[in-house]
Amino acid sequence: QVQLVESGGGLVQTGGSLKLSCAASGRTFSRYNMGWFRRAPGKEREFVATISMSGAMTSYKDSLKGRFTISRDNAKNTVYLQMNSLKPEDTAIYYCAAGERYGTYNFWGQGTQVTVSS
């Protein structure tokens, strides 16, 4: 079992930046691929980014490449999402997730709200 707790969300103006963190419980964090997802108001949850166990491989939603960066620190059991040049359409609840197989996720956090004002 892995418990995930997101933090770092908040209100930011268009063009601003935020860095989300997701802290994982347990001693096997490095055995999980990690991902970030988001759910905007009135929309379905969508994939944002994923990172492999070692951090060597990353993947992003095409439209977010260049603005968002996923990273992880296995010593701190934490995965991050750096978000730059934020736009109002980035407003959503952001969730982190963990999975033992790349691209699949078994555990989810409760989410953190990101609001980008115009």
Description of the structure:
The chain has strands at 4-7, 10-13, 18-24, 33-39, 46-51, 58-60, 68-73, 78-83, 92-99, 107-108, 112-117. It has 118 residues and is mainly beta. The protein is built from no helices and eleven strands. The protein starts with a strand and ends with a strand. Strands 2, 4, 5, 6, 9, 10 and 11 form a seven-stranded mixed sheet that branches. A four-stranded antiparallel sheet has the order 1-3-8-7, with no helix packed on it. The mean pLDDT is 96. A hairpin with a 7-residue loop joins strand 9 (92-99) and strand 10. Helix content is 0%, strand content 50%.
Topology of this protein?
Elements: E1 4-7, E2 10-13, E3 18-24, E4 33-39, E5 46-51, E6 58-60, E7 68-73, E8 78-83, E9 92-99, E10 107-108, E11 112-117
Parallel strand pairs: 2-11
Antiparallel strand pairs: 1-3, 3-8, 4-5, 4-9, 5-6, 7-8, 9-10, 9-11
Structural class: mainly beta
**Unreliable residue stretches:** none
Radius of gyration equals 13 Å
- Work out the helicity level: under 10%
Mean pLDDT: 96
User: Number of DSSP helices?
Assistant: 0
**How large a portion of the residues is in β-strands, by DSSP E?**
over 45%
General shape: globular
Count the beta strands: 11
The largest sheet, given as strand count, sense and whether it forms a barrel, is:
7 strands, mixed
Q: Can you write the helix and strand succession as a string?
A: EEEEEEEEEEE
* Distance between the ends: 40 Å
